[in-house]
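Exercise 7.
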Amino acid sequence: MAALIILVVGIFYYEIQPPADFPAGQTIVTIEKNTYLSQAAEQLATQHIVKSAFLFKVLVVVMERHRQVKAGDYVFSQPQSAVRVAYRLITGQGDLPIIKVTIPEGTNSRDMATILAKNIPGFDRQQFLVLAKPEEGYLFPDTYFFYSNVTAEQVVNQMRATFDSKIKTIQNDLHAFSRPSADIITMASIVEREATSTADREIIAGILWKRIDEGMALQVDPPFYYLLGKNSEQLTIQDLAVDSPYNLYKHTGLPPTAIDSPGLDAIEATVNPVATRYYFYLSGRDGVMHYAATLDGHMANKAKYL
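Solution. The predicted structure, written as tokens, is:
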């Protein structure tokens, strides 16, 4: 009898050990919702995470009693016993790495895709662009923590949900401003890239709204970065002549869409513009914003500060 017990214990101990062909490197096992225990066990055995599907089922029943495992993604970077695997699936311990990604204010969807692909291995950059383009301006710039297997759709949904949550904090200002919300976000995306201080943003917002209301072209450079990927210093005469609704030297009004994702400060400045006598502004080599009420004054500022 003692020999039989020793034999049974030996077999059990052998069977709960990781299989010899446990996959090398990192393996992600996805347990879909409503997966039966028997299906999960066969899946784990097929992927060489456990030796015996039958023993795995027995372990789950003994440990959990309800014959259930939690749906989700599970990372296996090194061999684990069947007992440990069973415990993880019962408790939902996926052990997926969490990656910190910071999206700066004023980032457009193209640059977001680059940042995400650089930080998240295997991230689907093209799928993100397809989903993010229609949401330009509404993917809130912030620091995010994503699982390593996050999908492009999940990233877009989380960033849009963050925007919806943040914008609620200034909802009263948005309603009081009495302009279409799409126009506000589009203007804010320009204001975001035109200045860094709240005071300058409020003055510039006042200038740009005034130019809109008086039918003047905005004549600003940031949309060219969205259109051509060029900053002000890189623009050529040919660039300024390009026929595009994003060329605000040739076309009046706002561009068709936001050109980046503005932060909350830029949005607040956009709906709290400061009225001045100015129509023109520029950022000088001295790092200061210089304003002018006339074109002559603006040209003088260009000669002096640029």
